[in-house]
Specification:
It is built from 8 helices and 2 strands. With 221 residues, the chain is mainly alpha-helical. The chain has one domain (3-164, 212-220). Strands 1-2 form a two-stranded antiparallel ribbon. The longest helix has 33 residues, at 96-128.
Length: 221
């Protein structure tokens, strides 16, 4: 690990440590809470449908946590540079792309902690739970999906945050125009579905945000 990367990593840790710590605690707690009923001593195996409903309801928190971690850590990575108008980055003896890569890598290293917390919490939850016959636990698959969601969210928001306020304004303006056109089309009874096409392209099928959709199940049949 180079001295430059250690310096960037330490700086980003100072800026985002509260986010990382709270995210790690939440990531460890969600799997445990999702199986809390099945882990109570003397209760025995929960009915399969009851347990699956509980796991599915808690499962909605995984993509929300992944998106929140990606967003907040990405914003924290560039907040100081934006405040200083990127003067510090321009004085460093390395090209801009190298500096951006160091920033990106440092942020993702920090995000390893909540990913590992999901894995630890999932294994502990399934180890202490009494599962109904026919149900299986998938702690590794859940952790891999959570890691992918965190990486996608972080990469998207990092790219947006790395730009200027003008860039963010352009992106938000484009989204606003699409929504405005869609609303006008609906009011005029026109057969136009821009948001539906955009949603399908992003979160449907092989879309880049498809990992956030579907069921997040620690335990399933």
């Amino acid at each position: 690990m180079s001295a430059m990367f250690r310096a960037v990593l330490y700086a980003q840790w100072k800026w985002s440590r509260l986010i990382v710590v709270l995210g790690t605690v939440a990531a460890f707690a969600i799997p445990l809470l999702s199986l809390q009923g099945a882990a109570r001593p003397g209760r025995g195996a929960l009915q399969a449908q009851e347990l699956l409903r509980a796991v599915q309801s808690w499962g909605t928190l995984y993509p929300l946590l992944a998106a929140a971690l990606g967003l907040l850590v990405a914003i924290a990575a560039w907040a100081a540079d934006h405040r200083g108008r990127h003067i510090h980055a321009l004085t460093l003896p390395l090209p801009r792309w190298h500096y951006v890569l160091l920033r990106f890598a440092a942020g993702f290293v920090l995000l390893v902690a909540p990913i590992a917390a999901v894995l630890a919490g999932a294994f502990l939850a399934t180890w202490t739970a009494t599962l109904a016959p026919g149900l299986q636990a998938y702690p590794i698959a859940l952790t891999v999906r959570f890691a992918l969601a965190v990486f996608v969210a972080y990469a998207v928001f990092f790219a947006i945050s790395a730009g200027t306020a003008r860039t963010a304004g352009i992106i938000l303006s484009v989204v606003a125009v699409l929504i405005f056109v869609q609303v006008v089309a609906n009011m005029a009874s026109l057969d136009l579905n821009l948001t539906g096409v955009l949603q399908t392209a992003l979160v449907g099928g092989p879309g880049p945000l498809a990992v956030f959709t579907g069921r997040w199940m620690l335990v399933d049949v």
